[in-house]
Design goal:
three-stranded antiparallel beta sheet; Hypothetical protein af1432; Beta Polymerase, domain 2; 480 residues; 10 strands; Ubiquitin-like (UB roll)
Length: 480
C-alpha cells in the first residue's frame, strides 16, 4: 500500500503545513473512492494516483496540482461528481480533475476527423491550465512503467500513442526527463527485439567507452581546477530510443553513431561555459561542424547548453555539453519548472518560461482561427516537430521559424497585423520577394502597406502553422 507519510514528508520540504494537510485530505478521499477497485496487476487502485502524485513532487508541483493528481480518476471510476470535488477541495482542483478525466476519453486511433477533434480538446486543456497536461503526462508515465501486465496488442497501442502524442508534447514543453522515459518505455513495448539488440550493442562497447570517458572526466576536472573553475563533470549515455532514431533517420549502423557516450559539465555561471569551451578546444581537437551554441540561441522549448564533439583517444568521438545548474533544471523540467522558479527574479529564466507559455497561448489562437479540427491538428503537429532556423529583426531580436520558412512566415511570427499587410521586405538590407526562403542568421525587415491583404497564393510558400492558419482565416472571412 502507498505510504502517505512518505509523500507528505517530501512535499513538506516546499509546501506549508496547511497545504500538506490539503494534499493528505485528497489522498484519503481518493483512497475511499477507489476502495474496492484493483489495477490490472491486482494491486489496490490507489497505488496509481499515489504514484502520479509522487512523480509530480520532483517538479515541486503546487498543492492543488498534487490534489488533482490524487483525485484524477475519481470522476471517471466512481459516482463522485465534479461538483462534489469542488465542494470538498475548491473549483480550481475540480477543474483540473475534470480536464484530466476528459482526456481519458481521447481515442487517437479513431478516424481522422474524430482524432483531430480529440487532439483539439487535449490542446485546449493544455492552454487553459498547464497542470492538466502535467498530471496527464505523469499518469501516462506511470501507466507505461506498469505496462508489462497487459496483453502485447494493448502494449503496442499504448506505446504508439505515447510516441506520437504524449512524448512530443513533453519534449515541446522542455520536459526532458519525462520525454526520455516515455520514449524508452514505448520503444521497448513497441519494438522489443530491436530494443534488446540495441541494448546488447551498447553493453558490448560500454566497457571501452566508459574507460575513455572516465579518463576525459579526470582530465577535465584537472584542467578546470587549474583554471579556478568550479564545476561538476559527469559521464552520460544516450538513451536507446535516441540512438535508434539516429540510426533510422541517418541510415547509419550502430558503429557509425558518434555520441553514444558523452560528458556533461555543470557550472554556476554562464560565462564559465564559454571559458570551459576554450580550455577543452585548446587541448582536444573538435569535430568540424559539430559545435552548437544553444545558450546564445535557445531551442524553442527553452533548452540552453553548449554542445561540442571532440576527438578522444584513437579518434573516438566524445560529445560534451556545458551548461549552468539553472539551465540543467530547465532542460530536465521545462515548463514544469515554473514551480521551481515562480519566485525567481532572474529575467533570463522567466524569459525561457514565457517562450513555452507563448506556445501554449498560440494553441488558443490556432483553435480560434482554424477552419476545422483536421486543420487544427495539422498545425499543432507542425509546431510539435519543428526543424528550426533562427533569424533576426532589425533590433536584434531572435525569431525561430520552421525549416523552409519564407518572409511571409516571418511577418506573421511578428504579429498577425504585420503578416496581413506585408508588402515587401529587406533581407540583410537587400530588397527581396515575399516567397524568399530564409536562412539562419539573416536579418529581415518587413515593409507593410494598408493596401495589401493576404491572397491565396501565399499559402503556396508559407510553412508555419501561424501563417497558414491566419491566411486561411482571412480568406474565409473576406471572400467575395
Amino acid at each position: 500500500m502507498p505510504d502517505i507519510y512518505r509523500l507528505t514528508k517530501q512535499i513538506a520540504k516546499y509546501l506549508n503545513h496547511h497545504q500538506v494537510n490539503q494534499v493528505r485530505r485528497a489522498y484519503y478521499y481518493a483512497e475511499q473512492a477507489h476502495l474496492d477497485q484493483k489495477r490490472f496487476s491486482g494491486e489496490p487502485y490507489i497505488t496509481h494516483p499515489y504514484a502520479v502524485a509522487v512523480l509530480l513532487t520532483d517538479m515541486k508541483m503546487d498543492e492543488k496540482g498534487l490534489m488533482a493528481a490524487l483525485l484524477h480518476d475519481v470522476i471517471e471510476d466512481s459516482q463522485i461528481t465534479k461538483q462534489a470535488i469542488s465542494l470538498q477541495f475548491g473549483r480550481e482542483v475540480a477543474d483540473i480533475v475534470d480536464g484530466v478525466s476528459k482526456l481519458a476519453h481521447i481515442n487517437f486511433r479513431s478516424r481522422a476527423h474524430a482524432q483531430a477533434e480529440n487532439f483539439q480538446k487535449m490542446s485546449l486543456a493544455l492552454a487553459k491550465d498547464i497542470r492538466v497536461i502535467l498530471v496527464k503526462l505523469a499518469d501516462r508515465l506511470h501507466n507505461m512503467s506498469t505496462l508489462g501486465v497487459m496483453p502485447a496488442s494493448k502494449r503496442r497501442i499504448k506505446a504508439r500513442e505515447t510516441l506520437e502524442i504524449y512524448s512530443p508534447i513533453a519534449n515541446r514543453l522542455g520536459m526532458h526527463n519525462i520525454n526520455v522515459e516515455l520514449e524508452e518505455l514505448s520503444f521497448s513495448a513497441l519494438y522489443p527485439l530491436r530494443y534488446r539488440l540495441l541494448m546488447q550493442a551498447v553493453k558490448k562497447i560500454r566497457g571501452k567507452r566508459e574507460l575513455l570517458v572516465k579518463q576525459a572526466i579526470y582530465f577535465f576536472e584537472y584542467e578546470l581546477k587549474k583554471n579556478n573553475i568550479t564545476a561538476t563533470v559527469i559521464g552520460r549515455e544516450k538513451h536507446l530510443y535516441s540512438i535508434y532514431q539516429k540510426m533510422k533517420i541517418r541510415r547509419k549502423s550502430f558503429s557509425e553513431i558518434m555520441d553514444v557516450f558523452g560528458i556533461r559539465v555543470l557550472v554556476q555561471k554562464k560565462d564559465d561555459c564559454y571559458r570551459i569551451l576554450g580550455i577543452i578546444h585548446s587541448v582536444y581537437k573538435p569535430f568540424p561542424g559539430r559545435f552548437k551554441d544553444y545558450i546564445a540561441i535557445p531551442k524553442i522549448n527553452g533548452y540552453q547548453s553548449l554542445h561540442t564533439t571532440l576527438f578522444g583517444e584513437k579518434g573516438t568521438p566524445i560529445e560534451v555539453q556545458m551548461r549552468t545548474l539553472d539551465m540543467d533544471r530547465i532542460a530536465n523540467y521545462g515548463i514544469a519548472s515554473h514551480w521551481l522558479y515562480k519566485k525567481t527574479k532572474d529575467a533570463e529564466l522567466k524569459a525561457r518560461q514565457w517562450g513555452n507559455q507563448r506556445w501554449i497561448d498560440d494553441l488558443l489562437e490556432l483553435q480560434q482561427i482554424s477552419t476545422n479540427s483536421v486543420d487544427f491538428i495539422e498545425n499543432v503537429k507542425t509546431s510539435l516537430f519543428p526543424d528550426s532556423i533562427y533569424v533576426f529583426t532589425p533590433k536584434g531580436d531572435i525569431i525561430e521559424l520552421p525549416q523552409g520558412a519564407t518572409v511571409i512566415d516571418f511577418a506573421y511570427a511578428l504579429h498577425t497585423y504585420i503578416g496581413n499587410q506585408c508588402a515587401t521586405c529587406r533581407i540583410n538590407k537587400q530588397l527581396s520577394s515575399l516567397n524568399t526562403v530564409l536562412e539562419s542568421g539573416q536579418t529581415i525587415e518587413i515593409i507593410t502597406s494598408n493596401k495589401v491583404n493576404p491572397v491565396k497564393s501565399w499559402l503556396m510558400f508559407s510553412v508555419s502553422s501561424k501563417a497558414r492558419s491566419n491566411i486561411r482565416h482571412y480568406l474565409k472571412n473576406n471572400s467575395v
